[in-house]
Amino acid sequence: MNIFYDENMPFAHEFFSELGNLYPFSGRELQAQDIKNADVLLVRSITQVNEALLKQAPQLKFVGTATIGTDHIDQEYLKQQSISFHSAPGCNAISVAEYVLSALVVLAERYLINLSTLTVGIVGAGNTGTRLAEKLSALNIHFKLCDPILEAKQKQGSNDTRQYYPLEEVLACDVISIHVPKTVTGEHRTVKLLDQQRLLNLRPEQILISACRGEVIDNHALLRLKEQGHGVKLVLDVWEGEPNVLQALIPYTEIATAHIAGYSLEGKARGSEMLYQALCNELKIAQKFQLNDFLPAANISSIEITQQFDQIVLNQIVKMVYDVRRDDAIFRQQLSEQGFDTIRKTYPARREFSSVSVTLSPNAYSDVPHRLGFTKTSN
Ligand SMILES: NC(=O)c1ccc[n+]([C@@H]2O[C@H](COP(=O)([O-])OP(=O)(O)OC[C@H]3O[C@@H](n4cnc5c(N)ncnc54)[C@H](O)[C@@H]3O)[C@@H](O)[C@H]2O)c1
Ligand SMILES: O=C(O)[C@H](O)[C@H](O)COP(=O)(O)O
């Protein structure tokens, strides 16, 4: 069996080498002639999988994307060709939530904001939006969810008991964090969900965070708004037209990064693991490996908190594991010379909160670190 996989999939060799011959490829450069003898194709979001790519691959039976987003896959075409398709829902949702939390912590320090006074509007309450909501709950930070699709399912009797709010109400919150897929057509289209009019409605003291897909915010309209002196604070991980970023927008952002919100080692590697599981299921063979077989220990793998848990301690432990300013600096300094894709391919190691076990001395007892995702030290 010939397995072609994106070179940017951690542990792909470890997971898949016993299942067939492995052929790594560079995601942006893959061409139809490269995969003529592929049985399995494993991609990331930068490879457009459609008829043009697959038309010369008669043996292909399995396509997987080690990502949450699936907007780069022509699923209708795969169905027509009886090629099975698997994505990795939720694989990097924790990573995205930790990115947003790190950004909030950094902005809270930069502008002396008390996080507990804020209301966060979360647009899209799926995997990433939900993980963020859980972390905000742990911190007692108020949030409002908008998700008309889940709201409609609730009305039809789903088990979801969360409260949903109209989009315009959620867009009026102190912080807006967007977590929708890229949807080009239909009632719930998200391309330019934040169009010129909605951007004009923003208040100068708001914070707007986007770590979903660049096309959800009209980047040119956002640039015009900022050029007119609007105060809205921007945290942008994703950009319209990646890898070609509207560079004039970067100086107007508080935090700008190269679509790496989901790039924790765990988040990316879970994508590899989920495709391994899917392929084993398809081949009807037992899974021999799991992610924990390969994940190394974090550089700092245990800490003790000795004072009462407050925003200062929160800032310290969040930034100890992941300080988003590192990725912001890399983006600003290296985008022109290295390019967007190289920054992503050479992304330095980043771990999730769970890689650190936290001990709390008796006077510091709090369940917040654990609820945020840190591992409880076992006695
Ligand atoms: N920056 C990154 O590194 C990164 C990482 C992971 C995911 N993503 C992107 O974020 C998107 C969301 O990820 P997820 O795991 O939460 O996906 P998900 O599918 O679990 O959840 C998306 C939610 O958005 C809702 N939704 C769809 N259209 C909407 C609309 N018009 N208004 C409000 N809600 C709407 C859906 O009902 C769903 O509940 C992915 O599709 C992907 O494109 C980016
Ligand atoms: O959709 C996703 O899962 C994320 O956007 C993911 O981080 C994309 O990473 P890429 O496939 O572009 O490396």
Topology:
Blueprint: E1 2-6, H1 12-16, E2 21-25, E3 40-43, H2 51-54, E4 62-65, H3 75-80, E5 84-86, H4 93-111, E6 119-123, H5 127-138, E7 142-146, H6 148-155, H7 167-170, E8 175-178, H8 196-200, E9 207-210, H9 219-227, E10 233-236, E11 255-256, H10 265-283, E12 302-305, H11 311-321, H12 324-338, H13 340-345, E13 357-360, H14 368-372, E14 375-376
Parallel strand pairs: 1-2, 1-3, 3-4, 4-5, 6-7, 6-8, 8-9, 9-10, 10-11, 12-13, 13-14
The chain binds nicotinamide-adenine-dinucleotide and 4-phospho-D-erythronate.
4-phospho-D-erythronate binds next to loops.
Explain this structure.
- The protein has 379 residues and is of the alpha/beta class.
- The chain has three domains: 2-87 and 264-293, Rossmann fold (3-Layer(aba) Sandwich), CATH 3.40.50.720; 93-256, Rossmann fold (3-Layer(aba) Sandwich); 302-378, Erythronate-4-phosphate dehydrogenase, dimerisation domain (Ribosomal Protein S8, Chain: A, domain 1), CATH 3.30.1370.
- The chain is 34% helix and 15% strand.
- It is built from 14 helices and 14 strands.
- The chain has helices spanning 12-16, 51-54, 75-80, 93-111, 127-138, 148-155, 167-170, 196-200, 219-227, 265-283, 311-321, 324-338, 340-345, 368-372, and strands at residues 2-6, 21-25, 40-43, 62-65, 84-86, 119-123, 142-146, 175-178, 207-210, 233-236, 255-256, 302-305, 357-360, 375-376.
- The strands form three sheets. A six-stranded parallel sheet has the order 7-6-8-9-10-11. It has a five-stranded parallel sheet with strand order 2-1-3-4-5.
- Helix 3 links the parallel strand 4 and strand 5 (84-86).
- Helix 4 crosses helix 5 (127-138) and helix 4 (93-111) packs across helix 11 (311-321).
- The longest helix has 19 residues, at 93-111.
- The N and C termini lie far apart (47 Å).
- The model has no long low-confidence stretch (mean pLDDT 97).
- Nicotinamide-adenine-dinucleotide binds at residues 68-69, 90, 92-93, 96, 123-129, 146-150, 179-183, 188, 190, 193, 211-213, 237-238, 259, 261-262.
- The site of nicotinamide-adenine-dinucleotide has 34 residues, from helix 4, helix 5 and helix 6.
